[in-house]
Amino acid sequence: MRLQEKVIIITGSCTGIGKAIAKRCVEEGGRVVIHGLEPELGQEVVAELGAENAVLHIEDLSVEGVAERLVALAVLTFGRLDAVVNNAALVASSNIHTTDLAFFRQILEVNTLAPFALIQAALPYLKPSKGCVLNIGSVNGWSGEPDLMAYSVSKGALMTLTRNLGDTLHREDGVRVNQINPGWVLTENEARRKHEQGLPVDWYKDVPPVFAPSGRILWPAEIAAAAVYWLADESGPISGQIIDLEQHPLIGRNPPKN
Predict the structure, then answer these.
(1) Which one is catalytic: 125, 151, 204, 229?
(2) What gap in Å lies between CA 9 and CA 6, rounded to an integer?
(3) What would you report as the CA-atom Rg of the chain, rounded to the nearest whole angstrom?
(4) Which of 7, 32, 49, 238 has the most CB within a 10 Å radius?
């Protein structure tokens, strides 16, 4: 039980990676605040995990005060707060020609500013527990796909936030801040998004080797397994680190042979 009695807020945990992290946290002895925008799906997650282990909060992260309400719910329900997982994100296609400032601001609000706000609201409770923050980024934060411009920029900014707070909060308050950058993961939303872009329903069964040398893309449970290390005490004093979780290197990769 690597997370015994730890209380963890996980944004965007009604589906996908966040849901997988929540399930793994409870398996490891933790208790979780489930968050998202889908009440029915969130209720299903809480029912699966048990009311003694999970509580649900449904609210858009761009709404004023949501960070404070998430923290208050954790403390009121479980009596403490040990960790925050900033997982929720808006994934929307855009490029230099299709991105206006209103859209860009919306992406940054959810993907970068909301994580900052939640860390800020949680800090008074993370300090006494010597807790931690785990930001869920993306390998796109290093440069990004042509049609994921705003999303990629928001994840690049999240990396800088992690580096900055991973140093200052650890040094001043004993709170660790780290980030994992998943590669291509088979979440419910990703499966639907690719199908809406014209791929067959079972597109993930035949992914080109250039994108998936193993023959498949990553599973949410594999990201969750990695997340536990950073949330557990076994990761020790490590802070301010960015870890890519992909099945091929992003820098120095050998070009595929024809």
Answers:
(1) 151
(2) 10
(3) 18
(4) 32
Prediction pTM value: 0.95
First CA to last CA across the chain, in angstroms? 47
Beta strand 83-86 pairing with 7-10 = parallel
> pLDDT tens digits, residue range 125-155?
999 999 999 999 999 999 888 899 999 999 9
Residue pLDDT, tens place only, 148-177: 999 999 999 999 999 999 999 999 999 999
Work out the number of other CB atoms within 10 angstroms of the CB of residue 125. 20
Domain ranges of the chain: 7-245
Q: How many helices (H) and strands (E) does the chain have?
A: 8, 7
**Alpha-carbon span 233 to 236, nearest angstrom:** 6
Helix (H) or strand (E) holding 35: strand 31-36
The position carrying tokens 């968050």 is: 35
The CATH number of 7-245 is which of 3.40.50.720, 3.40.50.1820, 3.90.226.10, 2.40.240.10?
3.40.50.720
Q: How far is CA 60 from CA 10, 38, 49, 202, 245, in A?
A: 14, 10, 23, 31, 27
From CA 174, how far away is CA 208, in angstroms rounded?
44
* 63-72, 124-133, 175-184, 195-204, range with the lowest pLDDT: 195-204
